[in-house]
Design a protein that fits this description.
This protein has 128 residues and is α+β, with helices and mostly antiparallel strands. 33% of the residues lie in helices and 23% in strands. Helix 2 runs parallel beside helix 3.
Amino acid sequence: MEIINTIGRRKSAVARIYLKEGKGKITVNERDFKEFFPTEQLQYIVIQPLKVMQVTEKYDVHINIEGGGIKGQAEAVRMAIARALVKINPEDKPALRANGFLTRDPREVERKKPGRKKARKRFQFSKR
């Protein structure tokens, strides 16, 4: 089996993954994913698509991540892994879509407006 590569995005995080048959090893930016994502919640988010399809021990995943915060990065990885699994077996698509792994979350940071403190926050109003 050849190497499958896909991209997942969330906020400003971009995850490029390379998925191939193996023993279930996941590396993120040349480090083990448990070292890169320290909390169990983030680790769970990363392996969710693999668990749903019951292939955690079947594929090795190599991940390169840029930008964003740690939560956005974890969710970008989840989306990329789900997309790769669909490339391998298109019949998995309904199960992954039902869990929301294939839907790109479109929310982005709103830009700061001129004459304001932040995007919507205003300076304190003084009547006199």
